[in-house]
Amino acid sequence: MPNLETRSMLLVDDDETFRERLARALRDRGFDVRTASNVDEGVQLAEQDSPEYAVIDLRMPGKGGMDLLRELKRIDAGTRTVILTGYGSIATAVEAVRLGAINFIPKPADADDVVAAFEKYERGDPMEGPAVTSTYRAPTLARMEWEHIQRVLSDCGGNISESARRLGIHRRSLQRKLQRHAPQERGRA
């Protein structure tokens, strides 16, 4: 099996905190990680120096992870790509694999999940579904609502009035939802 620890990696995710935390953990495992916050930055980095591995968030403002996956395959068909998402579905996973992704990992994912997906591929193990299916728990409806609100709020630059308009709810209702803490996942503290 090839040594994964000397390989270049492109990590593209619009969530800066998650992206930098995952990049640091992957660097600690020996990867040469370059990061980008959107599809255009990711394409630019890949065109400068095509990575051997890529980890892409599926949903980002503007162009999404599937768009970047297509571009990476155009730039270098040999780039092995894993898609990360908090909004996954079977249809999306199938489409990602059809476009050339080697695996599809639900968020929250950590560096061990990412490395395991690449190692599984390198060993030639067939993909039977997401690399972390044994530990994945579907998020609660309340958690999905909270994540969707946060995504829209982020897309609107923190503007509550515009976010409320896009969500189709009253501004005060959105403010009340935002005052609550993020719902906990089942079985997690």
CATH fold name of the largest domain: Rossmann fold
**Average residue-wise pLDDT:** 81
> Strand percentage, roughly?
5-15%
The end-to-end span amounts to 38 Å
- Derived from helix and strand composition plus strand pairing, the structural class reads alpha/beta
Unreliable sequence segments? 128-136
Helix fraction bin: 40-55%
User: How many structural domains in the coordinates?
Assistant: 2
CATH superfamily of the largest domain: Response regulator
Compressed to H and E, one letter per element, the order equals: EHEHEHEHEHHHH
Question: Largest sheet at a glance?
Answer: 5 strands, parallel
Indicate the radius of gyration in whole angstroms. Answer: 17 Å
The tally of beta strands, per DSSP, is 5
Instruction: Give the strand order, joined by hyphens, for the main sheet.
Output: 2-1-3-4-5
Rough outline: elongated
The tally of helices reads: 8
Please tell me the CATH architecture of the largest domain by its name: 3-Layer(aba) Sandwich
- Kindly provide the name of the CATH class of the largest domain: Alpha Beta
